[in-house]
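Need JmjC domain-containing protein 7's 3D structure for a figure. Predict it.
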Amino acid sequence: MEEPIESLWQEVRDLSLGSSTHIDHLSSPPTPIQFLRDYVSANKPCLISNAINHWPATTLWHSTPYFLSTLSSSSVSLHLTPTGKADALTPHPTTSTTCFASAEVQRIPFPDALTRVLESDPNCVGYLQQQNDCFRSEYGPLSHDCDPEFTWASEALGCLPEAVNLWIGNDLSETSFHKDHYENVYAVVSGEKHFLLLPPTDVHRMYIRPYPAANYHYSQDTGEFSLELEEPMRYVPWCSVNPYPSPELKEKEMAKFPLYFDGPRPFEVTVKAGEILYLPSMWFHHVRQSPDSRGLTIAVNYWYDMRFDIKYAYFNFLQSLPHSMLCNPASSGNLLVESQCHSSMGNPVEESSMTASANDDLLHDSNDAAEK
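Structure prediction for JmjC domain-containing protein 7:
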């Protein structure tokens, strides 16, 4: 089974995506028909310039005093982690079991939250985000600084955005590989975002496996984090690959995940301030960021409902196929679990819900589990 699956990775690039690791860069927003024909229907990403130059946010949001005055009475969700990696895999400190760790989330006044982001250090990283349409709720006073939609995208997709989210972070925050069941129009206002992208057909290269869910807890008294496994135990299917292993672990990681490291290179794109990335539904993406002179990276993303059409059926079928090279006896779960993980790995924007009672009901809906 390996040969036709691996041939597919290259055929997709030859027929649709091209041999370069770069994506199309449009100098201006596409027309609705061009966007639908060349990118949405083709499930193909693109970078777009000169689409948000008219936003007041592109000038106002470079002023920290403007943020503080506009949101002076707002309470927002601050995500705290010891490493800057939330909704990501990490060894449990006492059991050494690899688990899926979610951030500590505190609801605090915006001025205090922004200070925590700006004063982050490698032992306590703050990130302002909440993937629940937070831009139009928690950050409502800022909403008039950006357009409520991208008309060319709304017309092409036949709907308005289901959610609009705001992200305010620093260079310490990083998002592990995941995918979303949304058409994502991602606008960077300040700083830069660095994406690694892989198409849905490369799913077997992600080594998606079930991991026990855990949550970080932060002590204000000691300034230290603890990591606690959830009870009752539940499992989250997640991508096992770290594309940037440390030098001392690189050889080990490459040997453990050869389909990723030996396969076609991911597409690489840096989204600069004032640019937009169109990220098609179900594309795997890993994200790092570079801040502006203040130490902040600010972005707004618009989630449009994806079309559950024949492409979705094809991708689900592909994901359901077990790949024998993934059958590592040392990995968690068996072949059935591996196959189920592939078919259930959906929108990782908060957390999925699974039980550990039996293989038949181990994997449910993996909607909701990470950043962008």
